[in-house]
Amino acid sequence: MKRKFISFLSLLLFCAACNESKKQEPGSMDNDVVSATSFIRAALKGNFDLARTYMLEDSVNNDYMDVAARSQRSADDRQGLFDASIIIHKRAEANDSTTVIVYSNSYLKQRDTLKMVKKGDKWLVDLKFLFDHDSDTSLNKFLAAIPDKD
Fold first, then answer.
1. Angle at Cα 79 formed by Cα 74 and Cα 82, nearest 5°?
2. Taking the model in full, what pTM does it have?
3. DSSP characters for 13-58?
4. Is the pLDDT of residue 14 over 70?
């Protein structure tokens, strides 16, 4: 009887451990670069629910994320994005609660820009800047003055 109990308990612990590894909890949001790369990684892997946890919640950002989540990609593109590495080219602090991160991934290789905003103790992605950064001339002038890391 004791052996059956120990076997059952071991099986239960194993199942619990497997279930825990499938859950995807957000990583640290207390650092702008970590939060940005976690957002990018989740989006590249197609996990838009997880990516939303790193995003500044507003109607425009939600709409942009909805469009991204609905976009159709070929199986090769999905796999390429899933396997891609993230490359941070530039990080610029506009002030103590706003940074801009220029990044690319090893699959598409095109540079994109994320605006990170600190809300409370969390750094969150403001997607609007990714799509509308040409209209924000003050941040673009600031960003242009910072040299690339590569």
1. 125
2. 0.73
3. HHHHHHHHHH-------SSHHHHHHHHHHHHHTT-HHHHHTTB--S
4. no
